[in-house]
Amino acid sequence: MKYLTEDQIKDLKAIDTPTVANAVETHDARLNTEGFMGWDIKCQFPDLGVMVGQAVTATLNTTTTGKEKNRSGWHDCLRTIDAMPVPAVIVAKDIGPRPNHGCHFGDGMATVAKKVGAIGLVTDGGVRDVETVHEMGFQMFSVGLVPAHGNFGLDETNVPVEVGGVLVNVGDVVHADMNGVVVFPMDLVDHVIAESKKVTARESEMMDWVNSDEFSLDKFIEGR
After folding, report:
1. Which residues of the chain carry a pLDDT beneath 50?
2. Which of 119, 120, 162, 200 is most deeply buried (CB count within 10 A of its CB)?
3. What is the CATH number for 51?
4. By the 8 A CB rule, do 91 and 168 touch?
């Protein structure tokens, strides 16, 4: 598996997620309608800023009554995170029968996950204990908040999952902030960083012109 370098992480964290979305869609391998999660995946802690890491995937089901308790999946997830030399983002798919009641992370799990190298969670289920999780600086993106953990259990780890309309594989780059979540393969990292600088320059030039005395609607419509 390829891993982000310290310089790549630093560069990506200096870019907001909408700019990353604009940059990645310029690559021939990415359609401009793919790779970004929908508005149902909400940033719980906007003040924590940009989250950059590589995905560790899991499926979870906390709403099946009578399900046998088994923590082996959670332990496998933790081992994968611990073995990664870069910040990990857990991307978790809710596969339970009552997804609006699924709760997959609280302060206990966040504490352990952060200890072994995770920086955040992205899930199409719920989360809880947001006050204490926020205090520890662990980012959460979820559909909403649920007070009870139900019948806890990870079914599988390190498998492809579809969350927020995006297929996520282990090792994919996760870039997220208060605007939402973008996911792309490691092979596109250098392209995204380089193209983001061009996107920022183009947008800055355009906004400066719009706000100048040289602006006219006719020129704008004609494409300057």
Report:
1. none
2. 120
3. 3.50.30.40
4. yes
